[in-house]
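Review box. Two proteins, two foldings.
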Amino acid sequence: MNKITAIFFFGMLYPALVLGQGETRNWYFGSGAGIQFNVDGSVTPLDGGRLNTVEGCTTISDAHGNLLFYTNGINVYRADHGVMQNGTGLYGDTSSSQSAIIVPDPGNNLGYYIFTVDTNVQRDDPDNGFNYSYVDMALDNGLGAVTLKNQNLLERCSEKISAVVKDCDENSFWVITLAPSSSYSDTYNTFYSYEVGLDGVGPPVRSSMGLNITDKRGYLKLSPNGEKLACANGESGMFLFDFDSDTGRVSNPLSLQLDATNFAPYGVEFSSNNRFLYVHSSNDNFEGPHSSSLLQYDLENPNPNSSRRVLDERAIFRGALQLGPNGKIYRALSQSYQSGTNYLGVIDNPDDQNTTYTHDAIDLGTGNYATQGLPPFVQSFFDKIDIISGNGTNSGFLPLCVGDSYSLEAPVFLDGTYSWYKDDIQLSESGHLLEIDNADVEASGMYRVEIDRAGFGGCAIQGKGEVLVEAIPDPTDGVLIQCDSDADPNDGIAIFNLYQALDVLTGPETDFSLLFYENQQDFDNERPIANPEHYQSSGNGQQLWVRAINNAGCFGTALLALQTTPVTVVPSEIGSFYGCDEDAEDNRLAGFLDLDFLALNYTGFTVSFYTDLNDLTFEVNALTGSELLDDGTTIYVRLENDGQCADIELITLRIDPKPVVNIPSEIPTLCINNSSVVLEAEEGFQGYEWIRINDNGTHEVVADSRIANLTQGGEYLLQVTRSYTDTNGLHSCSNTASFTIPESNIAIFSQEPEVLDISANNVVTVFVEGEGDYEYALHDQNGPYQDTNVFQNVPAGFIEVFVRDKNGCGITNTTVSVVGHDKFFTPNNDGVNDFWQIKGIDSMVQADSFITIYDRYGTLLGHVSPTTKGWDGKQNGRLLPASDYWFRVQLQDGREFKGHFTLKR
């Protein structure tokens, strides 16, 4: 049995103007990043966030955890992630550390103030100082609208802001920032506390410090109980102050010592119990290499600096710290000023002096990046009170056993009024104690106490804790049987994994832990067996005492007898199991074991397979079929009846070689204008399959013999099979290799060749299409050929153009007309160059073209028709002398050109 008499409660401020921690349930930050806190304290990443900020951001939800809006201090986004009406142009800054914070309007439960801080980072960047805007959630069908914008409070301020409840009776908050004492100063030495109440934003309470703070960067945080103020100031250091929530004044500065390397504080946060302060500091090197530290300070220590503890050091950039509604503190993780990460770090139990830190704890999802900032909130949302001491834990969870008695106890407040609830149903108790005797399972539930006028600022406090009552386990006596396969299988001594007795003692559906004892005395003195996974029995029938324990720590007892079954490990009737080599090229004869197929040989047993007899004994490292095993491996088979070892057999794994597939070294091209390609595989195999991989990825067997007549090009597989005869009959191993049959075709002229003629450089461009690889030639189909389809310096006349497929699929040709003329002619009746004529003119198409001849003085000498041989060098039958002559051509198609040529004799 397990009896516990008290529980810690988690407490929260519950003033009229602050309904609970639902306001902090949803966070949006960084670049598209967001998280949601679930009721059980777990965290779920959120998508859809519209923020893109390197630093400042803030978010607010309603008391039930429904998102209302969020902002980077410039643009305000609604719950549906659209921009809020009039929600642009606020005077925050995405490069301000905190940029903005949202504070509920005490006089309007649908109204919210957005306070913003802005500083300049370069000469042309305006400094808009400290301002506030107002959001009315009653507008735009409940999506809200900004009704008041950029009301200035200070001309200049730092990049930091914080808020806390002032007074629940007066319904007011304090909103605080650090700024210079005047707008002309560059020293940030004055805190300005603004009361936000029923009448709006009041005048500031000024608290001037004798400090020389010149670095405006870093976070400002009030403790949840409003008594302390932590201020990080980059290269100007880290300070802790007292805060008076009645007056709004800041006092008693204490400089906190930081790591010598990571000297610049940025993110700060208090634990929810107000005892511990956490600081994220860096080396402030923007160019890299980057370095940062995560530090803890105990504020109950008279000298907090002496309590400094380093939780983490690593090469990352600076980042914010923010307390969550589950009591954990989250750390923004950034690689550099502009480069974020997909993760948040977590301080797991910040209320504990020995807390631990988990890096990369929260995965934000693909495309969502944390940068340097996290959303700040009114710190009073996180105020928590540990309610009494008792079982030494403040987890808020109390496990009990049926029949236990327990008490829930809240602190004593003389002016407090107590109301107790179970699962939100009010109970009759009205004092600081709730006592229940002889608990049953129905006593399980969520318990809550509300204490009126007990908290900070006169606010109510709520404590909450979960009680789980479980039945006491009732294990039955049982027997655990192990196979004894050692040198003397009849001695009753064997190695047992005692945890295998769980099903025997409590049944397969239970979730109990077990403790084992060798005798009654060890049981009574709580001396359990130290190594129950490898326990050697002392003889057949040995009896152990067992304690079965459930999650609540409740336990029952039973006796466990250890028995052995003598086993001589012999080869199975299967003998050997045959498989195929996995890789024919790796000089290793090894393959994968088909366990499902192998298990079919053992009907009536639960079967498991091992390569080591010790692993079989302790039922660890069982084969799963995914392990590559060498030829000759011994496989041990464990046979069980009702979870108890019945026999052991062994099988030898035999691996047959996988055939090597050799593709023909030269794969001919398949001409589409032809029929097929014939390929031959190597001889000596018992099976052949030629497989075409279709365009949609499906496989099609197109031939099943050694010689294949393939009629399509593309991607193929050749599979060959070799058969073996073993003790179990015929066995075969196959292997495949891939190859490609290239396709080609004779060229087709896609358009008429393009001719640029009647010039010093006649150019012909040929246009073809087809699946082939083509080359080009003029005049002669035997070449010479060129790769380019453009011919330069083409002579005038009718030119034959040839296009040849390089893969041998054929030649196609056409004729082009290149218009031009001879540069000279020799009319001496020798049959060579006796006439001058324009070349490349189709006498049928251009028959009406007009050609005239002139001498050097412009005298008309005659006319030439393209249908004749040409001009013979005569005028009216008289031979003209050797000289240069001129011509003019007017083609029938409208073109006209002039030139000259030489008559030689």
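Next protein.
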Amino acid sequence: MQSRYSMNNQNKKPYIKWILIIGALLIAASVTVWLYLHDWDVERSLDALTGQVAEQPATDPELEAEEQIEEAQKEDSVIPEENSEDVEENLPITPDSDEEALEEATKDATVYPESIELPEEPTFVKGILLANKQNPLPSDYAPGTDPEAKSAFDLLRAEALESGIDLTAFSVFRDFNRQKELYDGYVAKDGEEKADRYSARPGFSEHQTGLAFDIGETGQEQHWAKATFGETEAGKWVAENAHRFGFILRYPEDKEQLTGYMHESWHFRYVGVQVATEIFEADITLEEYLETE
């Protein structure tokens, strides 16, 4: 005869079996849901379990990039790296007389003519909008980012991505008031003479045209608006390929007397594929191109 203890144990066995089965199913379901929530990435799931999930991106990468660009445009008062050293070398010599000043201004694009005033209409030469120290824009000229130029940049970026380079335009259109804020800040820091080498006065900036794109590489913000961008793979790629999409390197090296500004490896200007190709192949500036017959 079985003891009451033995009979109780036998009666419990089916229940224990079902409890174990149900427990196993619940664990399996929990693991499945956990992996699903972490894109079926086992390593990411383990990181989350060990408390490392905070290191993973919490937002969509494209949205995060857009927020980064927006923030950069708000904070785009970064002074170009080239300004921080040797800025006193090769500064333009200011002539003594008004007559000499006028003559020098026609030869030296770094000099703002003393008598120049903002016009009522922008200046077009050969159908190309021109903005430099001799050709300002109306203070109320505010077209926003040019749609054609934006589309061209999107194509440029798409091709760069095929080479593993993720480009971003961290500063594009800036209106008159925004440029004034930036310029005044630069002058307060470095003085007018030095600021004029790397920043346009309000009304004289290419960014006000909506056709100028400050280009950098996503994730490499340490090179944004710095000479070092030109030394990176991304900077070299853009310099060699931008013309195929209608962009030119607006301020090349050793061309300050012609363009009015020191070299900026990140500043590109949209002029259309044909003109950009001609400028690139001739290795000249926009000013030189517009002066040719």
